[in-house]
Write the C-alpha coordinates for this entry.
Amino acid sequence: MCAVELTATTSAEADASVATYLERWLRHIRARVRTVTFEGYESLIRRHALPHVGALALTDVTALRIQELYADLLEAPGGATGLSAGSVLNLHLVLTQAFGQAVRWGLLPANPTAGAQPPRPRRPARIVVDPALLQRLLEVVEGSSLEAPVAVAAATGMRRGEILALRWSDLDADFGAVRVQRTLQPTRTGLVFEQPKTPRSRRTVLLPDFLTPYLERQQVSQAARRANLGPELWLPGDLLIDRGDGGPVNPDTLSTGWARFLRAHKLPPVRFHDLRHAHATMMLTQGVHPKVVSERLGHASIGITLDIYSHVLPTLQQEAAQAFDRLFPNDSSKAA
Protein backbone atom coordinates (compact mmCIF):
# COMPACT_ATOMS: atom_id res chain seq x y z
CA MET A 1 0.00 0.00 0.00
CA CYS A 2 2.81 2.38 0.81
CA ALA A 3 4.42 1.69 -2.56
CA VAL A 4 1.12 2.41 -4.33
CA GLU A 5 0.70 5.66 -2.41
CA LEU A 6 4.28 6.67 -3.20
CA THR A 7 3.79 5.95 -6.90
CA ALA A 8 0.55 7.93 -6.96
CA THR A 9 2.22 10.87 -5.21
CA THR A 10 5.15 10.85 -7.62
CA SER A 11 2.79 10.71 -10.61
CA ALA A 12 0.77 13.65 -9.29
CA GLU A 13 3.93 15.70 -8.77
CA ALA A 14 5.12 14.90 -12.30
CA ASP A 15 1.76 16.05 -13.71
CA ALA A 16 2.13 19.40 -11.94
CA SER A 17 2.99 22.45 -13.98
CA VAL A 18 6.51 23.67 -14.61
CA ALA A 19 5.69 26.76 -12.56
CA THR A 20 4.67 24.62 -9.56
CA TYR A 21 7.79 22.48 -9.84
CA LEU A 22 10.20 25.41 -10.23
CA GLU A 23 8.68 27.11 -7.20
CA ARG A 24 9.33 23.94 -5.23
CA TRP A 25 12.88 23.69 -6.57
CA LEU A 26 13.60 27.29 -5.60
CA ARG A 27 12.51 26.53 -2.03
CA HIS A 28 14.87 23.55 -2.08
CA ILE A 29 17.85 25.45 -3.44
CA ARG A 30 17.44 28.58 -1.32
CA ALA A 31 19.37 27.24 1.66
CA ARG A 32 22.09 25.79 -0.55
CA VAL A 33 23.34 28.95 -2.28
CA ARG A 34 24.19 32.50 -1.31
CA THR A 35 21.39 35.05 -1.16
CA VAL A 36 22.58 36.95 -4.22
CA THR A 37 22.84 33.69 -6.18
CA PHE A 38 19.33 32.64 -5.20
CA GLU A 39 17.94 36.02 -6.21
CA GLY A 40 19.59 35.65 -9.60
CA TYR A 41 18.07 32.19 -10.08
CA GLU A 42 14.61 33.39 -9.01
CA SER A 43 14.74 36.42 -11.29
CA LEU A 44 15.75 34.43 -14.37
CA ILE A 45 13.01 31.87 -13.78
CA ARG A 46 10.28 34.38 -12.97
CA ARG A 47 11.05 36.85 -15.75
CA HIS A 48 12.10 34.59 -18.60
CA ALA A 49 11.12 30.94 -18.06
CA LEU A 50 7.66 31.04 -16.50
CA PRO A 51 6.00 33.32 -19.09
CA HIS A 52 6.94 30.81 -21.81
CA VAL A 53 6.84 27.34 -20.23
CA GLY A 54 5.34 27.84 -16.76
CA ALA A 55 1.90 26.54 -17.75
CA LEU A 56 3.22 23.32 -19.29
CA ALA A 57 3.03 20.05 -17.40
CA LEU A 58 6.46 19.12 -16.14
CA THR A 59 6.46 15.90 -18.20
CA ASP A 60 5.60 17.86 -21.37
CA VAL A 61 8.87 19.80 -21.33
CA THR A 62 11.11 18.53 -24.14
CA ALA A 63 14.50 19.52 -25.47
CA LEU A 64 12.79 21.07 -28.51
CA ARG A 65 10.53 23.17 -26.30
CA ILE A 66 13.53 24.40 -24.34
CA GLN A 67 15.29 25.24 -27.60
CA GLU A 68 12.25 27.21 -28.72
CA LEU A 69 12.28 29.04 -25.41
CA TYR A 70 15.84 30.20 -26.05
CA ALA A 71 14.95 31.32 -29.58
CA ASP A 72 11.92 33.27 -28.30
CA LEU A 73 14.03 35.03 -25.69
CA LEU A 74 16.79 35.95 -28.14
CA GLU A 75 14.33 37.55 -30.53
CA ALA A 76 11.69 39.73 -28.91
CA PRO A 77 8.28 40.25 -30.58
CA GLY A 78 8.33 42.48 -33.64
CA GLY A 79 11.95 41.75 -34.42
CA ALA A 80 13.18 43.88 -31.51
CA THR A 81 16.39 43.05 -29.72
CA GLY A 82 15.71 40.30 -27.21
CA LEU A 83 17.59 38.96 -24.25
CA SER A 84 21.37 38.84 -24.51
CA ALA A 85 23.07 35.56 -25.32
CA GLY A 86 24.81 35.70 -21.95
CA SER A 87 21.52 35.98 -20.08
CA VAL A 88 20.01 33.09 -22.06
CA LEU A 89 23.07 31.00 -21.27
CA ASN A 90 22.66 31.81 -17.58
CA LEU A 91 19.01 30.73 -17.76
CA HIS A 92 20.10 27.49 -19.43
CA LEU A 93 22.50 26.78 -16.56
CA VAL A 94 19.76 27.40 -13.99
CA LEU A 95 17.22 25.22 -15.81
CA THR A 96 19.82 22.48 -16.15
CA GLN A 97 20.16 22.43 -12.37
CA ALA A 98 16.42 22.58 -11.79
CA PHE A 99 15.42 19.82 -14.23
CA GLY A 100 18.41 17.75 -13.15
CA GLN A 101 16.97 17.75 -9.65
CA ALA A 102 13.62 16.64 -11.11
CA VAL A 103 15.42 13.61 -12.58
CA ARG A 104 17.01 12.82 -9.22
CA TRP A 105 13.62 13.12 -7.54
CA GLY A 106 12.18 10.67 -10.06
CA LEU A 107 9.82 13.23 -11.63
CA LEU A 108 11.46 13.16 -15.08
CA PRO A 109 13.16 10.31 -16.95
CA ALA A 110 15.80 12.64 -18.40
CA ASN A 111 16.87 16.27 -18.28
CA PRO A 112 15.26 18.12 -21.24
CA THR A 113 18.00 20.77 -21.25
CA ALA A 114 20.58 18.11 -22.17
CA GLY A 115 19.37 18.12 -25.76
CA ALA A 116 19.09 21.90 -26.07
CA GLN A 117 21.92 24.12 -27.23
CA PRO A 118 22.23 27.51 -25.53
CA PRO A 119 23.76 30.43 -27.44
CA ARG A 120 27.43 31.22 -27.14
CA PRO A 121 27.85 34.79 -25.96
CA ARG A 122 30.54 36.88 -27.54
CA ARG A 123 33.01 37.85 -24.89
CA PRO A 124 34.18 41.47 -25.18
CA ALA A 125 37.89 41.96 -25.59
CA ARG A 126 39.45 42.41 -22.17
CA ILE A 127 41.68 45.44 -21.70
CA VAL A 128 45.07 44.26 -20.52
CA VAL A 129 46.21 46.20 -17.47
CA ASP A 130 49.98 46.07 -17.74
CA PRO A 131 52.36 47.65 -15.19
CA ALA A 132 52.47 50.94 -17.10
CA LEU A 133 48.67 51.31 -17.20
CA LEU A 134 48.36 50.22 -13.57
CA GLN A 135 50.90 52.87 -12.55
CA ARG A 136 48.86 55.47 -14.43
CA LEU A 137 45.65 54.33 -12.72
CA LEU A 138 47.25 54.51 -9.29
CA GLU A 139 48.51 58.01 -9.98
CA VAL A 140 45.08 59.24 -11.04
CA VAL A 141 43.18 57.76 -8.07
CA GLU A 142 45.69 59.10 -5.54
CA GLY A 143 43.91 61.05 -2.84
CA SER A 144 40.46 59.89 -3.89
CA SER A 145 38.10 57.42 -2.23
CA LEU A 146 39.06 54.93 -4.95
CA GLU A 147 42.74 54.88 -4.03
CA ALA A 148 42.57 52.18 -1.33
CA PRO A 149 40.22 49.70 -3.09
CA VAL A 150 42.15 50.00 -6.38
CA ALA A 151 45.50 49.44 -4.65
CA VAL A 152 44.18 46.45 -2.67
CA ALA A 153 42.66 44.88 -5.80
CA ALA A 154 45.86 45.28 -7.80
CA ALA A 155 48.15 44.06 -5.00
CA THR A 156 46.12 41.03 -3.91
CA GLY A 157 43.79 39.95 -6.74
CA MET A 158 40.90 39.88 -4.28
CA ARG A 159 37.32 40.06 -5.51
CA ARG A 160 35.32 43.28 -5.24
CA GLY A 161 33.00 41.96 -2.53
CA GLU A 162 35.93 40.54 -0.55
CA ILE A 163 37.72 43.90 -0.54
CA LEU A 164 34.63 45.80 0.59
CA ALA A 165 34.04 43.28 3.40
CA LEU A 166 37.55 43.61 4.87
CA ARG A 167 37.90 44.77 8.45
CA TRP A 168 41.04 46.25 9.92
CA SER A 169 41.08 43.29 12.32
CA ASP A 170 41.55 41.00 9.31
CA LEU A 171 45.01 42.49 8.74
CA ASP A 172 48.18 41.70 10.65
CA ALA A 173 49.51 44.54 12.75
CA ASP A 174 52.37 45.14 10.31
CA PHE A 175 50.14 44.76 7.23
CA GLY A 176 52.03 41.64 6.26
CA ALA A 177 48.96 39.51 5.56
CA VAL A 178 45.19 39.70 5.31
CA ARG A 179 42.60 37.03 6.10
CA VAL A 180 39.70 36.81 3.64
CA GLN A 181 36.77 35.68 5.80
CA ARG A 182 33.65 37.21 4.23
CA THR A 183 32.27 38.96 1.17
CA LEU A 184 29.82 41.84 0.77
CA GLN A 185 26.89 41.23 -1.57
CA PRO A 186 24.02 43.49 -2.69
CA THR A 187 20.59 41.87 -2.34
CA ARG A 188 17.01 43.07 -2.72
CA THR A 189 16.80 43.67 1.00
CA GLY A 190 20.13 45.49 1.23
CA LEU A 191 23.81 44.69 1.66
CA VAL A 192 24.71 41.43 3.38
CA PHE A 193 27.98 39.95 4.58
CA GLU A 194 28.24 36.32 3.54
CA GLN A 195 30.72 33.46 3.53
CA PRO A 196 33.28 33.59 0.71
CA LYS A 197 32.35 32.13 -2.67
CA THR A 198 34.04 28.73 -2.14
CA PRO A 199 35.90 27.05 0.74
CA ARG A 200 39.20 27.99 -0.91
CA SER A 201 38.07 31.59 -1.10
CA ARG A 202 38.45 31.67 2.68
CA ARG A 203 42.18 32.24 2.68
CA THR A 204 45.16 34.24 3.90
CA VAL A 205 46.88 36.49 1.37
CA LEU A 206 50.39 37.78 2.01
CA LEU A 207 50.66 41.48 1.25
CA PRO A 208 53.51 43.18 -0.63
CA ASP A 209 55.29 46.15 0.95
CA PHE A 210 53.90 48.15 -1.97
CA LEU A 211 50.51 48.21 -0.26
CA THR A 212 51.62 49.52 3.17
CA PRO A 213 51.58 53.28 2.37
CA TYR A 214 48.13 52.96 0.81
CA LEU A 215 46.78 51.28 3.95
CA GLU A 216 48.45 53.84 6.20
CA ARG A 217 46.92 56.71 4.21
CA GLN A 218 43.52 55.01 4.42
CA GLN A 219 43.85 54.80 8.20
CA VAL A 220 44.69 58.50 8.44
CA SER A 221 41.85 59.49 6.10
CA GLN A 222 39.35 57.34 7.95
CA ALA A 223 40.41 58.67 11.34
CA ALA A 224 39.97 62.27 10.12
CA ARG A 225 36.51 61.56 8.74
CA ARG A 226 35.50 59.78 11.93
CA ALA A 227 36.65 62.77 14.00
CA ASN A 228 34.79 65.24 11.78
CA LEU A 229 31.59 63.22 11.81
CA GLY A 230 31.67 62.40 15.49
CA PRO A 231 31.48 59.04 17.24
CA GLU A 232 27.70 59.18 17.52
CA LEU A 233 27.27 59.26 13.72
CA TRP A 234 30.15 56.95 12.77
CA LEU A 235 28.79 53.47 12.06
CA PRO A 236 30.44 50.46 13.75
CA GLY A 237 31.98 47.68 11.74
CA ASP A 238 35.74 48.33 11.59
CA LEU A 239 35.59 48.30 7.78
CA LEU A 240 38.78 49.03 5.87
CA ILE A 241 36.83 50.60 2.99
CA ASP A 242 33.80 52.68 3.97
CA ARG A 243 31.33 55.01 2.27
CA GLY A 244 32.29 58.02 4.39
CA ASP A 245 30.51 57.26 7.64
CA GLY A 246 31.98 53.86 8.48
CA GLY A 247 29.22 51.99 6.64
CA PRO A 248 29.81 49.52 3.80
CA VAL A 249 30.16 50.57 0.17
CA ASN A 250 27.69 48.95 -2.21
CA PRO A 251 29.76 46.83 -4.64
CA ASP A 252 27.67 48.06 -7.57
CA THR A 253 28.26 51.66 -6.48
CA LEU A 254 32.00 51.01 -6.47
CA SER A 255 31.90 49.63 -10.02
CA THR A 256 29.76 52.43 -11.44
CA GLY A 257 31.80 55.06 -9.63
CA TRP A 258 34.99 53.53 -10.98
CA ALA A 259 33.65 53.56 -14.55
CA ARG A 260 32.51 57.17 -14.19
CA PHE A 261 35.92 58.14 -12.76
CA LEU A 262 37.75 56.58 -15.72
CA ARG A 263 35.53 58.36 -18.24
CA ALA A 264 36.09 61.70 -16.50
CA HIS A 265 39.86 61.22 -16.72
CA LYS A 266 39.73 59.89 -20.32
CA LEU A 267 41.25 56.56 -19.33
CA PRO A 268 40.55 53.13 -20.90
CA PRO A 269 37.29 51.49 -19.70
CA VAL A 270 38.98 49.05 -17.34
CA ARG A 271 36.45 47.11 -15.27
CA PHE A 272 37.19 47.01 -11.56
CA HIS A 273 37.30 43.21 -11.87
CA ASP A 274 40.09 43.60 -14.45
CA LEU A 275 42.40 44.67 -11.62
CA ARG A 276 42.05 41.12 -10.27
CA HIS A 277 43.03 39.77 -13.69
CA ALA A 278 45.93 42.22 -13.81
CA HIS A 279 47.29 40.90 -10.52
CA ALA A 280 47.14 37.31 -11.71
CA THR A 281 48.68 38.05 -15.10
CA MET A 282 51.55 40.08 -13.65
CA MET A 283 52.30 37.41 -11.04
CA LEU A 284 52.38 34.66 -13.66
CA THR A 285 54.61 36.63 -16.03
CA GLN A 286 56.96 37.31 -13.12
CA GLY A 287 57.41 33.59 -12.66
CA VAL A 288 55.13 33.02 -9.66
CA HIS A 289 53.93 29.42 -9.68
CA PRO A 290 50.32 29.04 -10.94
CA LYS A 291 49.45 27.14 -7.75
CA VAL A 292 50.41 30.14 -5.65
CA VAL A 293 48.50 32.51 -7.94
CA SER A 294 45.46 30.24 -7.68
CA GLU A 295 45.66 30.34 -3.88
CA ARG A 296 45.94 34.14 -3.84
CA LEU A 297 42.89 34.46 -6.09
CA GLY A 298 40.87 31.96 -4.05
CA HIS A 299 40.02 29.79 -7.05
CA ALA A 300 38.38 26.45 -6.32
CA SER A 301 41.17 24.67 -8.21
CA ILE A 302 44.37 25.41 -10.09
CA GLY A 303 42.60 24.21 -13.23
CA ILE A 304 40.36 27.28 -13.16
CA THR A 305 43.42 29.53 -12.95
CA LEU A 306 45.17 27.79 -15.83
CA ASP A 307 42.02 27.93 -17.96
CA ILE A 308 41.43 31.66 -17.40
CA TYR A 309 45.07 32.65 -17.87
CA SER A 310 46.05 30.22 -20.61
CA HIS A 311 47.13 33.20 -22.73
CA VAL A 312 50.05 33.69 -20.33
CA LEU A 313 51.24 30.08 -20.51
CA PRO A 314 53.15 30.32 -23.83
CA THR A 315 55.43 32.89 -22.19
CA LEU A 316 55.94 30.60 -19.23
CA GLN A 317 56.70 27.68 -21.57
CA GLN A 318 59.39 29.76 -23.27
CA GLU A 319 60.90 30.71 -19.92
CA ALA A 320 60.95 27.04 -18.91
CA ALA A 321 62.84 26.10 -22.08
CA GLN A 322 65.32 28.92 -21.52
CA ALA A 323 65.78 27.84 -17.90
CA PHE A 324 66.71 24.32 -19.04
CA ASP A 325 69.20 25.77 -21.54
CA ARG A 326 70.83 27.70 -18.73
CA LEU A 327 71.35 24.43 -16.88
CA PHE A 328 72.61 22.60 -19.98
CA PRO A 329 74.05 25.18 -22.38
CA ASN A 330 74.48 24.10 -25.98
CA ASP A 331 78.28 23.98 -26.46
CA SER A 332 78.85 24.08 -30.20
CA SER A 333 82.55 23.34 -29.71
CA LYS A 334 81.72 19.92 -28.30
CA ALA A 335 79.54 19.13 -31.26
CA ALA A 336 82.43 19.93 -33.58
Remarks:
- The CA atoms of residues 64 and 116 lie 7 Å apart.
- The domain at 131-317 is CATH 1.10.443.10 (hpI Integrase; Chain A).
- Residues 1-9 have pLDDT under 50 and may be disordered.
- The beta strands are 177-180, 183-187, 190-194, 203-206.
